[in-house]
Amino acid sequence: MAKWTYLAGIGVVVIGALGIQIGRPVGAATLTSTLTPPHMTASLQMDWPSGPESYLAVSPGGEVGAAGADQPIPVGSVTKMMTAYLLLQKYPLGLYSPGPSVTITAHDVHEYQQDILSQQSVAKVVQGEKLSERKILEGLLVASGNNIAHIAANWVSGSSQAFTQLMNQEAKKLGLHHTHFVGPSGLNPGNVSTPRDETIIAEKAMQIPVFRQIVAMPQISWPDSSRPIENFNYVVGHDGITGVKTGSTLAAGGCFVFSAPRTIGSHTVTIFGAVLGQQGTKQLPQLQSALNDGVSLINQLTAQLKPVSLVQKGQVVGRIQAPWTHSVSLIANQSVSTVMWPGEHVQERIHWSGGQTGSLSITAGSQHWSIPLMLSAPLSQPSLIYRLTRGL
């Protein structure tokens, strides 16, 4: 009897030991990344304009670089981008539609005549004529008529004062922290902004097809005008430049907000940017100086843009290792490539919670991708034999 009691006791001890062994933690599977972030030249090489402030961005992509203090300075007729943008918010317009019309009043004609006397940029108006929304936009963005800016403001808000309040409200909504408007035309030097803020406005407005179409026009026809009105943006239509707006006053100097689509490898991106405050010389007027500098920035950046593969479908991006089995690979389920410039940073992070799938997050500038991942083989669970024999 004592013998069987002894053996039973041993059995209890063995079973207890086996239970403890089986219940012990088996260790966690670990993830090791095999990704190598793309290597780019250390820094962007740019010969920035001598004027006070300049800015460059790529869409999609984000901010590339800037020069100057990034402080509010007068912007002249670049203001009219916001005026046109708000007109289109109030009265959306299709690409091939003239849109609603506004009737020119005696006040509009008087303002036009006063603007001529003070040598402002204008577009002729005649009392009683009807100008379509499209013509108003052309007069704003191509002819850069200060009188047209006030007609648009009155049409949208009832007065230039009320419209100016709307402009500042919209600037705040768009996050333009260094922009302030005192009128719809830009003649007043109290209209101030920065190249970064003006580029944000341009990118936003250029998402509207009819705005994009009009700013790309080298010239327009105009009622009661025997000759076409030339775009003050003399370089539009050359070297792939599609806009956006110029400005030139004594206070603002030469200003140029630009857009230029570029094909880099299999990608199409748009270079956006702005040059503000160019003073020019006796030989080179301030507006021409700003245009030249804008073209130079576009060409310099274009030469440094490169197509870059961030991940390939089927690429092993990480390995899962567990002490009870052989390692398995995490594999990307799609390819991602983009356009990059020297100095741009790429952040990559693998997300895996222990299952059969995961994801890869990639951030480059303002772009973000989430790529699905899958295991190359199922990750097995620890076997009973492994649980019993580990550590022995």
TrEMBL record:
Domain (Peptidase S11 D-alanyl-D-alanine carboxypeptidase A N-terminal): residue spans on this chain: 68-262
BP-aspect Gene Ontology terms: cell wall organization; peptidoglycan biosynthetic process; proteolysis; regulation of cell shape
One Pfam family in the UniProt entry: Peptidase_S11
Keywords (A to Z) from UniProt: Carboxypeptidase, Cell shape, Cell wall biogenesis/degradation, Hydrolase, Peptidoglycan synthesis, Protease, Signal
Active site per the UniProt annotation: 77 (acyl-ester intermediate), 80 (proton acceptor), 144
Binding site for substrate: 245
Domain of life: Bacteria
One function term, GO molecular function aspect: serine-type D-Ala-D-Ala carboxypeptidase activity
SUPFAM superfamilies in alphabetical order: beta-lactamase/transpeptidase-like
Similarity field: Belongs to the peptidase S11 family.
Protein name: D-alanyl-D-alanine carboxypeptidase (Penicillin-binding protein 5/6)
Provenance organism: Sulfobacillus thermosulfidooxidans (strain DSM 9293 / VKM B-1269 / AT-1)
Phylogenetic classification of the source organism: Bacteria, Bacillati, Bacillota, Clostridia, Eubacteriales
